[in-house]
Amino acid sequence: MEPRGVSVSAVLPAGGSGERLGGTTPKQFCAVQGRPLVSYAVRAMERISWISDIIVVVSSENIATMKTIIEKYGHKRVTVVEGGVTRHRSIFNGLKVFAEKEFSSHLLQKPEVVIIHDAVRPFVEEDILSKVVMAAKEHGAAGAIRPLVSTVIASAADGCLDHSLERARYRASEMPQAFLFDVIYEAYQQCTDYDLDYGTECLHLALKYCKTNAKLVEGTTDLWKVTYKRDLYAAESIIKDNLSQEVCVITDAKETAAQVGFLLSESLKSQIKVEAVSISQSKCDSHLQNILSGQCYNFVCVNVHLDTSENNSFSIGVEELTSIKKFARETKKKNILVYGLLIQYKAWGCKRPPDVILFMSLIKRKYPEEIGPNRLRNRKLTDSNYK
Amino acid sequence: MEPRGVSVSAVLPAGGSGERLGGTTPKQFCAVQGRPLVSYAVRAMERISWISDIIVVVSSENIATMKTIIEKYGHKRVTVVEGGVTRHRSIFNGLKVFAEKEFSSHLLQKPEVVIIHDAVRPFVEEDILSKVVMAAKEHGAAGAIRPLVSTVIASAADGCLDHSLERARYRASEMPQAFLFDVIYEAYQQCTDYDLDYGTECLHLALKYCKTNAKLVEGTTDLWKVTYKRDLYAAESIIKDNLSQEVCVITDAKETAAQVGFLLSESLKSQIKVEAVSISQSKCDSHLQNILSGQCYNFVCVNVHLDTSENNSFSIGVEELTSIKKFARETKKKNILVYGLLIQYKAWGCKRPPDVILFMSLIKRKYPEEIGPNRLRNRKLTDSNYK
Ligand SMILES: [Mg+2]
Ligand SMILES: [Mg+2]
């Protein structure tokens, strides 16, 4: 998957004004599940080890906001650059950081290939990034495309139909795109003010000024751009769905707890990606912060407790509960939800696998934030959501 | 708003296979808030009094399903027609019901203008329908358009960029479209098998076979087509939002209750569309069914009860509660949610307006189905959700 023998960095223009959303907050800063959209796009880049630097270009009034976001979500390898008044001018500014000493006090290493991706396309995967990078290395430029959803038509001056385009011959140009750095930088240096002010398509500049015909790469449906309010709704639902695709089973290091955790993770493996971690509860904070910092947002933690008391009531130590609650509040900022699974050791035994169906229904719910202890009070297993 | 001096009917092709959704259920039959998408589109047409007949064209295997949907949601003025193997053949079949005696045992009155709209565009408003109908009456054909979201490009045979289109010159062709019946029917009769099998654009047929240049009408953002799974998510969120845009305050006919209901509806008017109805509780079922049958889905009913007991506890008669619960179950099938607002008469007095902020937060919640009595147990006003 990793493109071999090529250095890669990325530029994310995030200077748009979001007029089409009808709101005052630019769409890249709109909160989706409590986190700004731009943070998802940065996260998507950051997860990929072979991307060296991530340049986020924002308008001057949003530089402080962007720096706060980077701090809050612990983003790494990100440089914030001030944008221009148009999309092309912003991208050009982002590229200059690699090329012009006077533009940046800290000149970054010029990459062989630069990815250009939108801050408002949060779901980009390594596969398509790798494909456009390899195609750009070979062809000089490459971009993701998608089939047209609607027929495209040309109107005449009188507001009537002039002609309609044959849908099969055309494609929608999407992001990510990738370029040999020297090709796209040359194109920006050569192009006119008219291009910089009214153009939007980088592939077009590479063709016009460097005679580089970009390779077109079929992208997946999740590359779409958040443009309207309905797209924010859709992004939110997708993120909620993703949240329930991966589980990390965290147990106390005590033998009985670790054993239950092992059985649980084995049972879940047929349905979901599972990682099992056993650590001492007292070391929860520092250990888990390390484990989780490298992970993506679609991650659910499970805390398994054992109650070995003789009677039939559940119990959990106040100190332990406080520690988990604190941890859950921390991870929630990163869209990681912590569920507590309190298993009555005596009634349950420790050979029988936990009730996976109940568990899956808990973590597959589309609205995890709605889950409270009351909801599941009468279930066989008692679950608590500590957020 | 009503187009004057013109008879109008509508054809809704609903024969698509929904391949792009990645599921087996065609998208028009996917449930959104528990109700099939096609039912929203039919409802949107049905609400408009000047549309005479609504022809829904479905594939033969879905005729029974469609008839069940019509029955279940009480749709009126709808005729189900068997589709062809392509979109154009399905629309043609829908039009034949108005024109060919041998095709239908019950020949419908031929309209002067026919609207063509997709079953997977659930949010069409009277305004745009009226505009395309009036434009079709004048120009012979008309269709809604939207700005392009992405740049459109043409690829060469080698999979590389050939050229990109200048975005400002082109538009996306959307639905609804409208035609003089004789124009579009003539176009379908004239067109080739190739057109019927591979074409998708009715405006193109009207131009090619009847020399009719359709008038293009700027549509609103909500005309988009449900194509991918994310569009279903978006539709669901929009429907949930709409649900909390209108309120009907229903009170008992007793003077005190009606008085409280009046104050409540007056207080709410600054924030939401309100209709106030006072009826005797015993006649609740039949009266309300009549009131609500003409309404669209985005409707919330409020039931105001007065508790005049001397002590500080709330109370409501079991019989009354049972009757409301039954009613709420019925209306929920139509996506109308009934909330009960139990007001302690003595403590509250009857001059002070009810707590509108609390009330708005209740009905503006995006997930009304999650509201249970427990959630609000400790509030000043007691609300119950009877679903
Ligand atoms: Mg571009
Ligand atoms: Mg058409």
UniProtKB/TrEMBL annotation, chains A, B:
Keywords: Cytoplasm, Nucleotidyltransferase, Transferase. Signal peptide: none annotated. Pathway: Protein modification; protein glycosylation. Residues 245-304 form the D-ribitol-5-phosphate cytidylyltransferase C-terminal domain. InterPro entries: IspD/TarI, ISPD_C, ISPD_synthase_CS, Nucleotide-diphossugar_trans. It catalyses: D-ribose 5-phosphate + CTP + H(+) = CDP-D-ribose + diphosphate; D-ribulose 5-phosphate + CTP + H(+) = CDP-D-ribulose + diphosphate; D-ribitol 5-phosphate + CTP + H(+) = CDP-L-ribitol + diphosphate. Its main location: cytoplasm. PROSITE patterns: ISPD. The keyword Ubl conjugation does not apply. Its EC number is 2.7.7.40. It is found in: Cytoplasm, Cytosol. The keyword Amino-acid biosynthesis does not apply. Gene3D superfamilies: Spore Coat Polysaccharide Biosynthesis Protein SpsA, Chain A. It comes from the Eukaryota. Cytidylyltransferase required for protein O-linked mannosylation. Catalyzes the formation of CDP-ribitol nucleotide sugar from D-ribitol 5-phosphate. CDP-ribitol is a substrate of FKTN during the biosynthesis of the phosphorylated O-mannosyl trisaccharide (N-acetylgalactosamine-beta-3-N-acetylglucosamine-beta-4-(phosphate-6-)mannose), a carbohydrate structure present in alpha-dystroglycan (DAG1), which is required for binding laminin G-like domain-containing extracellular proteins with high affinity. Homodimer. Belongs to the IspD/TarI cytidylyltransferase family. IspD subfamily. This is D-ribitol-5-phosphate cytidylyltransferase. It comes from Willisornis vidua.
